[in-house]
Each structure stands twice: as C-alpha cells, then as structure tokens.
Design goal:
Alpha-Beta Plaits; monooxygenase activity; 5-stranded mixed β-sheet; monooxygenase; Dimeric_a/b-barrel; 4 helices; globular
C-alpha cells in the first residue's frame, strides 16, 4: 500500500481534487523501498491502465531518478481535477493500490501551467 504525504502541508492533495478550474497536471513523486523498483513500476503500469481508460485522462509519463536514486515521478495530465478524482475513487484504481510495494511513499500534487513572458505559455 502507498502512504500519501502532502508536498505542501497547507494544501491537502485530496482537497485539490475539488477544484473546478479546468485542466490539471498531477505530479506524483514516489520514494520506492530499496530493491522494489520493478514491483513499483509494475504496480504503476496497472494503475495507469485504469487511469488511461478513465474519462478526462490526457497523458502520463514516468521518470526515474538517476545515480541510484529511489525516486520515481509520474506526471499525468487530466482534463479536470474532477475527472482525476473520479478515477482515483474508482473500484479499479482502489484495487490496484495494494500492488504497490509496502513502504512506498507518494507525494502527489496538482498543478497548472503558468505563462512566463518570453519563456513559456500557459496553453498547450
């Protein structure tokens, strides 16, 4: 099972799921127990199959820390926080959570693009 810890102690991840302001990006950083990387990736793959089938899913990408790091980060784009909330509350997703290695810690947070003149836009 995965332990969930808020990245920002003033902003509860589950409260973020009540937002109704349009597309969101989930950045979920995991710390994987020693020697459990393959098991974690398989659990994430199963988790992602459920998410890909859910309404509002746009994309996902998994990143792994380098040089022996046990950090793995999932970046997933959703049409809305509501769609992500519905996917997280689905029976399929809840069933997959038990596949994550014991001792896995997740730090999920929802974000939106920010426009910075001359550098990046807030639209895709």
């Amino acid at each position: 099972m995965v332990e969930i810890i808020n990245v920002d102690s003033d902003t509860d991840f589950f409260a973020q799921l009540d937002d109704d302001g349009g597309p969101v990006t989930l950045v979920n950083t995991f710390v994987v127990p020693e020697g459990k990387y393959d098991q974690m990736v398989e659990a994430w793959r199963l988790d992602s199959e459920v998410m890909k089938a859910a309404k509002g899913f746009i994309s996902a990408q998994l990143y792994r820390g380098i040089h022996g790091s046990r950090v793995v980060t999932n970046v997933a784009v959703w049409e809305s926080a509501e769609d992500l909330r519905n996917a997280i509350n689905s029976e399929g997703f809840i069933a997959v959570l038990s596949k994550y290695p014991e001792g896995t810690v997740a730090y999920p947070h929802l974000l939106r693009r920010v426009a910075v003149p001359g550098v990046c836009t807030s639209t895709s």
